[in-house]
Design goal:
With 275 residues, the chain is an alpha/beta fold. It has 2 domains: 126 residues, Leucine Dehydrogenase, chain A, domain 1 (Rossmann fold, 3-Layer(aba) Sandwich); 137 residues, Rossmann fold (3-Layer(aba) Sandwich), CATH 3.40.50.720. It is built from 11 helices and 12 strands. The strands form 2 sheets. The protein has a 6-stranded mixed beta sheet with strand order 2-1-3-5-6-4. Helix 7 links the parallel strand 8 and strand 9. Helix 5 crosses helix 6 and helix 5 crosses helix 9. The model has no long low-confidence stretch (mean pLDDT 97). Bound molecules: 2'-monophosphoadenosine-5'-diphosphate.
Length: 275
Amino acid sequence: MTQIPRAAVLGNPISHSLSPKLHNHWLDRYGIQGEYTALQVTEDALAETLHHMPEQGFVGANVTIPHKVAVMRLADQITDRATLIGAANTLIFKNDGKILADNTDGYGFMANLRQGAPEWDPKAGPAAIFGAGGAARAIIVALADAGVPEILLANRTRPKAEALKAEFGARIQVIDWVQANLMLSEARTVINTTSLGMKGAQEFRVPLDLLRPDAVVTDIVYNPLHTPFLLAAKAAGCTTVDGLGMLLHQGVPGFERWFGKRPEVDELTRRAVLS
Ligand code: ATR
């Protein structure tokens, strides 16, 4: 008897994850016999859980907070982009028993921006990034790869931004958090990678009056979908792209590897995940 292919998202906590809705929507939509669940896994149990998953029919997994960095030590092979980012969100359990770790966050970010703002040109001018956490790392790698000429980076804790500059190079200019609004007079791509504006978190308070109307503005926060940051950008005449698409697109490469079909991200997908 052949088992149906299984995949799961591993995290702690995990109940808030939208990944099961996303992957089950795709499984239904394409009539694929498969299963995708959420597994709450503590840091202590991560290695053991991963070790036993292949024998239980798992073909891969997504990993989320707090396992994205730890999982790198447990993988047998790591893709170049996961190595560069220093974290993984997608695992593939290969037939030879090896675990391949990949990071699709930068891909998801880029695919979302290209879908939401088809006219967006990364080379048009500098990008301004608020925040220097895990999400910012993936986005910096993706933007540099897309040919953005300069990245202006502001973080409340400045040394974290300096560390990213030291790691990712000369194209990054660190701006003090209290002067972060000054990045906007030049920026053609503007990204909030902080948790500011998320339901239950603090507000995004950096003044946005210097935003250029020809900037493309996006937020990684997707709850609420229309963050005050995006609403202000829209009011300033900017093209805005919400953060939900990044989550949806980052799931595409994993689903394709595990279940053999490259899934679409469209209005149907968005509705299924938001329902
Ligand atoms: P992620 O992996 O999602 O990027 P993270 O690594 O915890 O999560 O990063 C969160 C980001 O939001 C950081 O840039 C953080 O700034 P600090 O490095 O100074 O902590 C930023 N952030 C969170 N709360 C903030 C606040 N109240 N004001 C400004 N920035 C904040």
